[in-house]
């Protein structure tokens, strides 16, 4: 029995996104750009990267675990056939403790029986999200 695809709504001309890769990119964009306080109804339940980094800026292992857990739950809502998220970190400036951190995400998800893989690298500077890039099979 095939699992029904869960679409992502947009406020653009794209309307509902059902393509697995486009949906993933949109969801990652939401994770990065959402505001923790953007909803009164869902207060505390908004998946927000910046909030995670702010709360754990001096503890990269805890931050990596929180990113992994939050993304697993968030993406799992849209890919019920399965999501696996792995997040590791690397300190880029040992002299200044956790002022510059690179987080590497390896994300596997399944939709309509097809498995997809994505890798993203997040950079954090002084407790603020700086940039996300797509990794090339690193």
Could you name the key traits of this structure?
about 30% strand; alpha+beta; two-stranded antiparallel ribbon; single chain; globular; Nuclear Transport Factor 2, Chain: A; about 140 residues; four-stranded antiparallel sheet
How does this structure look, described?
28% of the residues lie in helices and 32% in strands. It has 138 residues and is an alpha+beta fold. The chain is globular. The mean pLDDT is 87. The strands form 2 sheets. Strands 3-4-5-6 form a 4-stranded antiparallel beta sheet. A two-stranded antiparallel ribbon has the order 1-2. The chain contains 3 helices and 6 strands. The protein has helices spanning 20-33, 49-55, 60-76; strands at 8-9, 16-17, 83-91, 100-111, 114-125, 128-134. It has one domain (8-134): Nuclear Transport Factor 2, Chain: A, CATH 3.10.450.
Fold topology:
Layout: E1 8-9, E2 16-17, H1 20-33, H2 49-55, H3 60-76, E3 83-91, E4 100-111, E5 114-125, E6 128-134
Antiparallel strand pairs: 1-2, 3-4, 4-5, 5-6
């Amino acid at each position: 029995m095939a699992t029904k695809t869960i679409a992502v709504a947009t406020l653009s001309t794209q309307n509902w996104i059902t393509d697995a890769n486009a949906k993933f990119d949109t969801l990652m964009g939401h994770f990065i750009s959402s505001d923790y306080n953007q909803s009164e109804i869902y207060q505390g339940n908004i998946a927000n990267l910046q909030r995670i980094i702010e709360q754990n800026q001096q503890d990269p292992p805890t931050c990596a675990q929180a990113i992994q857990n939050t993304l697993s739950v968030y993406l799992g809502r849209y890919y019920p056939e399965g999501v696996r998220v792995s997040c590791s970190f690397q300190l880029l400036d040992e002299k200044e403790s956790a002022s510059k951190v690179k987080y590497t995400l390896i994300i596997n998800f399944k939709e309509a029986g097809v498995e997809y893989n994505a890798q993203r690298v997040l950079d954090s500077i002084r407790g603020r999200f700086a940039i996300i890039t797509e990794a090339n099979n690193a």
